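Hi V.,

Quick status before I head out on leave. The structure for the redesign project is tokenized and pasted below; the design run finished overnight.
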């Protein structure tokens, strides 16, 4: 797992629903709206695989 310049662990397998740049990236990647990604994070959790499965399900 990579670390940030502040020494914190960075997990690229997760999406931080409160971080606009992460939500925008995932929305663009999946061809969905930001609201759809936020709803998927809320219902499925913050793991990328689960979010992608939730978005493709709808």
């Amino acid at each position: 797992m990579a670390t940030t310049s502040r020494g914190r662990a960075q997990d690229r397998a997760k999406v931080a629903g409160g971080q606009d740049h992460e939500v925008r990236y995932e929305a663009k990647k999946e061809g969905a709206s930001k609201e759809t990604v936020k709803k998927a994070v809320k219902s499925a959790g913050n793991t990328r695989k689960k979010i992608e499965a939730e978005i493709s399900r709808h």
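Above is the designed sequence. The CA atoms of residues 21 and 27 lie 10 Å apart.

G. will cover questions while I'm gone.

Best,
W.
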